[in-house]
Design brief:
By secondary structure, the chain is mostly helical. It contains 20 helices and six strands. It is 63% helix and 5% strand. α11 runs parallel beside α13 and α12 packs antiparallel against α13. It binds arginine. Arginine binds next to α7.
């Protein structure tokens, strides 16, 4: 039990148990143990290189820290919930084990730059894991898309059938969003990748430390340039929460589509039994709970972002204890986003696509009306006239229970003499899709290119791992 406080010299009374609990963060920051130990090892090694601590003290510190790490990972050492935080816990444990040398570790360092370092390393690592999960999900989407280059379905605006597209084109839109999410993570990780250690409490130190060598040892691109900023900055936490919020927004939109698509009203897909649940009362039900939960968890990730933004908005420089509140928010956002990406990918991977239902849905609703108008434009009519004529044809179809495909040529000609036999191929859904060959369009050749670019994107990142 760690009841003695490091600062007891200055204090006459002990902290009450309730205040101790209120103040303590070890129940949630214990997950930083690895970063804390790695950071301390790099710090100690530097202190030794600079002649600030002796070789003997350094080797005892390094040995002690490495044993502590092993013991935590093997379950031999439990976190003491009476400790104030993970940093105090590890330092006290080290001193218990190796004595005086342990007391030298905190030379030229403050918990303020220590926690800033640990958090950066933890967030950097976690965002890397999120990125790998995204890459896996993007690959799953690309695989699914490759199987459905010819699967015609309605594209919507206002949730009204608008123009025919393919399932491949549709879901590759999500791959585009997720690829942007990956580059957003790369950007924010690049911005956060500077070592704050050496900032001290806020004004560095008088010891001749070598920050650059510590930065190198811990995989940073350099050191932070202002010690006050170094300990005050939590932009990297907020930016990461913002990256995660966008990812969750994308997954939430996709989830919404999945929920709609597996309703009887759409019937476009069927989720695998392993990724849906039944009802306790209605035996016919197969509920898309997983997609709904992903949509729901988006709210809590937004909540974390809002917590973090609000947490930081009124803080004077430099460190304030308020900042301890950043951890649960960012940890929760990281954990839930990771979970959602992984489980969503498996749900998508295993879902069954009802190709003919999609195709039939595209055949209804005059989804090829634009193509009918474009046909007349190609015959020389101005688009606005062609649009008006097509509108009249559609009104006629609705009144007479017809579709553009079932109108006779004679009926077409009653609306405009320019109509010829070619109209039927112009409004054929597959031709409508494949006629849209513009870059970014749904023609299967274009979507195949889109998929290839996407695979280059994920491939390059997998090779770099
Ligand atoms: N547990 C603290 C946090 O998470 C560590 C830093 C404490 N620094 C201090 N001077 N009280 O922010």
């Amino acid at each position: 039990m760690q009841t003695k406080k490091m600062w007891e010299g200055r204090f006459k009374k002990e902290l009450s148990a309730a205040v101790n609990d209120f103040n303590s963060s070890i129940s949630f920051d214990n997950r930083l143990y690895r970063e804390d130990i790695t950071g301390s090892m790099a710090h100690a090694a530097m202190l030794c290189r600079q002649g600030i601590i002796s070789e003997k003290d350094c080797s005892e510190i390094l040995g002690g820290l490495s044993d502590i790490l092993d013991d935590i990972e093997n379950g031999k050492l439990e976190f003491d919930m009476n400790a104030e935080d993970i940093h105090m816990f590890i330092e006290a444990e080290l001193t218990d084990r190796i004595g005086d040398a342990g007391k030298r570790l905190h030379t030229a360092r403050s918990r303020n730059d220590q926690v800033a370092l640990d958090c950066r390393m933890y967030v950097r690592k976690s965002m890397g894991e999120i990125k790998s999960s995204l890459i896996r999900l993007i690959d799953i989407i690309a695989d699914k898309a490759s199987m459905h280059l010819e699967t015609v379905m309605p594209g919507y605006t206002h949730l009204q059938r608008a123009q025919p597209v393919t399932l491949a084109h549709y879901i590759m839109a999500y791959a585009q969003m997720l690829m942007r999410d990956v580059t957003r993570i790369e950007n924010s990780v690049a911005r956060m990748n500077y070592l704050p250690l050496g900032s001290g409490a806020l004004a560095t130190t008088t010891y001749p430390i070598d920050r650059e060598s510590v930065a190198k040892a811990l995989g940073f691109d350099g050191v932070t340039q202002n010690s006050i900023d170094g300990v005050s900055d939590r932009d990297f936490v907020i930016e990461s929460a913002s990256d995660l919020s966008l990812i969750m927004m994308h997954l939430s939109r996709f989830s919404e589509e999945i929920i709609l698509w597996c309703s009887s009203e759409f019937g476009f897909i069927e989720l695998d039994d392993a990724y849906s649940t039944g009802s306790s009362i209605m035996p016919q039900k197969k509920n898309p709970d997983i997609a709904e939960l992903v949509r729901g968890k988006c709210a809590r990730v937004y909540g974390s972002l809002m917590t973090l933004l609000t947490l930081m908005k009124g803080l004077p420089l430099a460190y304030n204890k308020d900042m301890q509140e950043d951890k649960e928010a960012i940890f929760d956002a990281i954990d839930n986003t990771k979970l959602c990406i992984d489980i969503f990918g498996e749900m998508l991977n295993t879902c069954k696509v009802n190709v003919s239902v999609m195709r039939n849905a595209a055949a209804k609703g005059f989804i090829n009306a634009t193509d009918c108008a474009d046909y007349l434009v190609k015959k020389g009519l101005p688009f606005r006239d062609a649009y008006k004529i097509t509108g009249k044809i559609i009104a006629y179809c609705i009144d007479n229970g017809k579709t553009l495909e079932t109108m006779s040529l004679g009926e077409y000609k009653d609306f405009c003499s320019e109509f010829e036999d070619g109209i039927y191929s112009a409004i054929d859904l597959v031709n409508c899709v494949n006629g849209r060959k513009v870059t970014g369009g749904p023609a299967s050749a274009r979507v195949a290119e889109q998929i290839a670019l996407c695979r280059d994107f994920t491939g390059a990142r997998k090779n770099a791992e």
